[in-house]
Amino acid sequence: MKRQKSSSVAMGGVICALCVVVMLSGSIIPAATFCAPALAGALLMAVAVDAGMKQAWTCYGVVALVSLLFVPDKEMALFFALLFGYYPLLKAYLQRLPGHVMPFCCKLAVFNLAVVAVYSLLLFVFPMPGLVEEFAESQPWMLAVLLVLGNVSFVIYDSALFHVVHLYVRRIRPRLRHRTH
What we know:
transmembrane; transmembrane helix; membrane
């Protein structure tokens, strides 16, 4: 029992460190504003599968806090903290909702509320001059098109998360277990 607990804590620590590395390296690449937090969030699913949801939520909190403090790209850090970090964990609960329409609508609501929260914070609470200028110069229809494209991308991301968990459980996890025993 102690060995299992210590190995799950160690795994949580390693995944947290890897998530922080992904977030920090994402700030170097301009196009990684959305990709790095999405990848870091997907990594947390391994903790949820192997160590449980409590440990995964703890890892999310640690990575979110460290990202908000140390990642230079605050837009990316906020997207991790307010969407991509917790969404893979929340997805497990949303999948349990009855039917197909209710979980789908809840997922899109989570995404849209998170996007509004992130950009409200970045425009009004912690204004980033470049972002404020970019939004001021954009036409409203263009922002609406970007939100629709974001929703489409999010649906693809949601589907990919299912396949990532499946890949982890079927292929990666057995190889990791084989090497640790």
